[in-house]
Amino acid sequence: MVVANLVGLMSGWLLRNRQNASVRNDYAVAQARIAFIENELATATQTISELRNTITTLHQQNARLDATNRHLTDALASQKADTDTLQKRLTTEFENMANRLLSKTTQTVTQHNRENLTDVLKPFTEKLMDLGKKVTDSYTHEAKERASLQGELKQLLNLNQTMALEAKNLSTALKGESKVQGNWGETILERLLETSGLQKGREFTVQPSFTTAEGRRQPDVIVHLPENRHLIIDAKVSLTAYAQYFATENADEKKAALDRHVSSIRSHIKQLRDKNYTQLTTNSPDFVIMFMPIEPAFGLAMQHNDSLFLDALNNNVLLVSPSSLLATLRIIATMWTNDRQNKHALDIAEEGGKLYDKFVSFLEDLNQMGRQLNTVTTTYASLSKKLSEGTGNIIGRTKKLEQLGIKARKQLPDTAVYSEAMASKRLDVTNP
User: Fold this and answer.
1) Which residues, 6 or more positions from 318, have their beta carbon under 8 angstroms from its beta carbon?
2) 87 band by pLDDT with thresholds 50, 70 and 90
């Protein structure tokens, strides 16, 4: 009986030990799963925080752009009003001047001045119409830019989500194919440039080729800035190790994959440093922008190795993700918009200077014409006086010849009638 009891006790004890071991094993598995979930949650929290910071920055930029737009709108309206006032004033002055001149000269002088006025007013009118078109186009472009800004803010979030989904869908197809990965990264880069509002062939150039002492160099993109400055951007995709990181649940394998992911990024940094792209163009900063098109891959690398960003800067390479690059490109697009508006203002000032010079030249010619007409009038009056007025005038002497009996086929008109006829032909011109 005692032996049976002992056997029962031993069986129960062994059974409980096996149950406890199973529970401990399940607990360890659950702990590992919780750790993996916490790590994923931290990564998602980091990404959300970066997106919120980006949205805050873009809202601030939107406020600044609104203020700039209001200022430019007021300035453009003021310039347009001044241009209209100047056009009306000059047109009125020209018309009044032409009317005074036409009323005091003969038909020949009138026609001559009319042609001069036409020559002066025609290019001026054409310039004013051209300036008005430039001002209207600039205002319309700015209004469109402002209207599309809110849509682009939403597009930034959608773009990040889309790119993350595309990275997941393409991870299998791109795995191990470095050339395919590179082409995909270049496509994403060009799409971002166009989304920011920059125009290919004008604000940026894709894969320009340079021949240097070290050989042929071909960066992915050169972004042109106002005042003949440039930014060089090269897309680099590190996807293979990143995909392997999410393909396994083993902690050691995940750590090894993450180390390979960071090592791949460092390899790209070294390649860009050795290519020395900063020497390809003048007025370029002393760093090259390395674009990583997969936002989560960028964030994971920064989280795993917090010195990676500074190490890249020390090698003259600036690491950027899609969100940070798009914000930078939007600022560059705004710089180009402001530059074009400033150039329009300079064009208006230059055309105003030309108009002033033309008007001064016209007044000088008009004064010269007045002096010449006065000289002609004085000479005409002197000749008329000698002909018909005063003692010994030519008409009186000619009549004496008639009285002496000279033979002539025609007769002189009456002196009074002739003098009146001559007087009617005198030019009435005053000093201008």
Assistant:
1) 287, 288, 289, 290, 312
2) low
As a whole number, the mean pLDDT across the chain is 75
Give 218-225's long-range contacts (Cβ < 8 A, gap of 24+): 219/275, 219/277, 219/280, 219/288, 220/186, 220/189, 220/291, 221/189, 221/190, 221/193, 222/280, 222/281, 223/193, 223/198, 223/329, 223/332, 225/332, 225/335
Mean pLDDT calculated for residue range 278-293? 84
In this structure, are residues 245 and 300 in contact, taking their beta carbons and an 8 Å threshold?
Answer: yes
Distance CA 97, CA 113 (A): 10
Question: If pLDDT is split at 50, 70 and 90, which confidence band does 346 have?
Answer: low
pLDDT at 100: 67
**Quick one: pLDDT at residue 260?**
92
User: Of 262, 304, 299, nearest to 51 (Cα)?
Assistant: 299
Q: Who's near 428: CB < 8 A, 6+ residues apart?
A: 104, 377
Which domains does the chain carry?
Answer: 176-320 (3.40.1350)
26 pLDDT above the threshold of 90: no
Listed in sequence order, the residues at least 6 apart from 96 whose beta carbon sits closer than 8 Å to its beta carbon are none
Contact 115, 98 (CB under 8 A): no
| 311 contacts 338 by C-beta, under 8 angstroms | no
Measured distance between the N- and C-terminal CA atoms of the chain, rounded to whole angstroms: 148
pLDDT of residue 427: 46
